Amino acid sequence: MIERDENMVTRRLPLRHMAAMAGMLFTAVALCQTKSVPVGQESPERQKNSVGMEFAKLSQGVFQMGSPQGEKDRLETETLHRVGISKKTWMGVHEVTQAQYARVTGESPSHFKGDNLPVEKVSYDDAVDFCRKLSALPQELAAGRSYRLPTEAEWEYACRAGTTTPFHFGDATNGTQANHDGTKTYGNIPSGPNLGKTAPVGSYPANAWGLYDMHGNVWEWCADWYGPLAVDETIDPQGAAQGTGRVLRGGSWANHGKNCRAADRYGYDPASRKNYLGFRVVLEQKKDQPLK
Ligand SMILES: [Ca+2]
Questions:
Q1: How do residues 1-46 score in pLDDT, each as one tens digit?
Q2: Angle 124-135/98-105 helices, nearest 10 degrees?
Q3: Is 249 helix (H, G, I), strand (E, B) or coil?
């Protein structure tokens, strides 16, 4: 159902001095991390905004983005490399629901109808527009909160929550721990359910950080242009400088288990509106104090 985007942009080689700077930054991020518990092992602080969206405050840290060579069904573009996330991130606990989307935009574009179902049939531009409108609500302005899509790196960091397996729940999936076509299993596991539609957000077990539906339900738009991942370690990568596709992550109700892997990544037409495309958002808290 989802086609891979082969229009890759030219790889940008890191400059030598950029590598030195990255090394220093990695040391700083690692030092911050050693002051707290390992990635994925703390219970994040939470907050709700004025439209009832819930966010979890993920710690900064370092993780391995991409997949190892031996991972079944891995794509060549899932280049395994070390990535630092230098700031704490308020990540959406759920995919944006239809009720939340309608309250902010006045629109109900979804194919499958239900207030607590994830919004779908939203383009990348629709998702960005939702963030802009949500950020402009008087209560959000007063609270110093603004919103944006997660970067691809933030998304994978959030999905993994400290794990290195294909799924945050392990090495196999059959539609019982995430909403995808469970007859198209991944790993050593019997065939499972295939709902053939979206499920209410939060219907399946959360990951260690309390985030739901990172695997399956609807694909999630990320902020980045799709392109090659870095080969060397990077801090807070923002994706390709330009491209033709925007990044989608996590797979959907319509997909095989392999497409729901934490490292799986696609570039997709940003104007596309399909009943398997949705998103979650990151909250920027302007009143946050700098890290010490
Ligand atoms: Ca999802």
A1: 444 443 333 334 344 555 565 566 666 666 555 455 678 777 889 9
A2: 70
A3: strand
Distance 254 CA to ligand 1 centre (A): 11
* Amino acid (one-letter) located at 238: Q
217 residue type, one letter: N
SS3 9: coil
216 close to 258: Cβ distance less than 8 angstroms: no
Domains, the chain, in order of start with CATH, read 8-285 (3.90.1580.10)
User: Which amino acid type is present at position 113?
Assistant: K
| Residues surrounding ion ligand 1 at CB below 5 Å | 213, 217, 250
- Ligand 1 center to residue 248 CA distance, Å? 10
Measured distance CA(14)–CA(20) in Å, rounded: 10
CA 123 to ligand 1 center in whole angstroms: 15
Tokens 């819930």, located at residue: 54
